[in-house]
Specification:
With 141 residues, the protein is of the alpha+beta class. The chain is 52% helix and 19% strand.
Amino acid sequence: MPGSIVPRLHFRVRENGAQVFRLGCDNRQNRLDMQPIAVINLRKAEIRPHGDQDLSEEELTAMREWIAARRQILARREIEDLWRLVDQLHMVTNWVQSRASDEDLAALDDALLIAMHDLRAALVRRRAERATGDDADQEPS
């Protein structure tokens, strides 16, 4: 593509990773070609070549760097989501106290109480583990 800088790889984000494409513009119409070269499993940090593609060391390094950066982004988003949840809990409390009808509460209160009880139990258990330094009974994340 004349006058522009095209990255060498494109990462199409998927639910648990990405499909990786090698970019090029070698044809006469100067169109961007996207050749699938690998699939990344983020949970396992696994890179699987697409078909019989040979991946260069430079491409593998770029994919490993993408995995590390993506994990940081997702970890940061998870914490941000939890802070938003705290705000939402405050808003639910305000709604219950000021605007909820008896019918609204009848439809939701059991589900909310059970979810909050479950959350409270998990938080108390983890706080106790931190206080005693006991991680042996910790559930996997």
